[in-house]
Amino acid sequence: MNELTLPHADAATTIFNLHDYRVLGAETLSFGQRRIHIESTVDSGCPSCGVIGTRRHSGRQQRVRDIPVAGPVEVVWAKRRLFCDESSCPRRTFSESTLEIPARSRTTSRLHGALVDAVVSFRAGSDRNSHRPWGLVVVGAKSLDLGGNETAQR
Questions:
Q1: For residue 59, which of 83, 42, 35 has the smallest C-alpha distance?
Q2: Cβ atoms < 10 Å from Cβ of 131
Q3: Percent of the chain beyond pLDDT 90?
Q4: Is-contact 69 38, C-beta < 8 A?
Q5: Which residue range or ranges hold the Transposase IS204/IS1001/IS1096/IS1165 zinc-finger domain (predicted)?
Q6: Residue 69: how many CA atoms within 13 Å on its side-chain side?
Q7: Which of 47, 67, 51 is nearest to 114 (CA)?
Q8: pLDDT tens for residues 20-38?
Q9: Cβ–Cβ under 8 Å, residues 20 and 9
């Protein structure tokens, strides 16, 4: 239903490189950050019964945090809510999710992986007997401006 019409992804989707997503558009914001609009290219199944949703109930624009891609970005996902067509399923509707952006997540899996790698590297480089406060890790993550725009809006 949501398959690419071309055998190869367009240039923007290839550069952004978020598995199972297609870039719909991009814009530059007034403070230099870029906003990238994406949509899922895979069908989602009902979390209760597993039946693939084919009928759209509604949609919303959800902001998602992601790693910087040639600078800080704001990612906006055109997330669909789908009907579950299995008559015996107690769930009537569900939101789509993928491996890259799991259910109820506001961050991509690649951002989560980058943060875990940074914490492991930070811990491996420190003295085992010293106890660095987690505040340093939080400050370090905020200074990277990893797809969020708190720093840019202040």
A1: 83
A2: 8
A3: 42
A4: no
A5: 46-89
A6: 19
A7: 67
A8: 899 999 999 888 789 999 9
A9: no
Q: Which two tokens stand for residue 126?
A: 């420190």
Of 67, 74, 64, give the one whose Cα is nearest residue 106. 64
Task: Count the alpha carbons within 13 Å of 151 in the hemisphere toward its beta carbon.
Answer: 15
Q: What is the 3-state secondary structure (H, E, C) of the chain?
A: CCCCCCCCCCHHHHHHCCCCEEEEEEEECCCCCEEEEEEECCCCECCCCCCECCCEEEEEEEEEECCCCCCCEEEEEEEEEEECCCCCCCCCEEECCCCCCCCCCCECHHHHHHHHHHHHHHHHHCCCCCCCCHHHHHHHHHHHCCCCCHHHHC
Q: Provide the token pair at 97.
A: 């999710």
Extract the tokens encoding 83. Answer: 């009907």
**Residue 7: its pLDDT value, please?**
55
Q: Do 23 and 4 meet the contact criterion of CB atoms below 8 Å apart?
A: no
The residues near 140 (Cβ < 8 Å, ≥ 6 apart) are: 118, 122
Total residue length of the chain: 154
- Beta-carbon contacts of residue 85 (< 8 Å; ≥ 6 apart): 51, 53, 54, 55
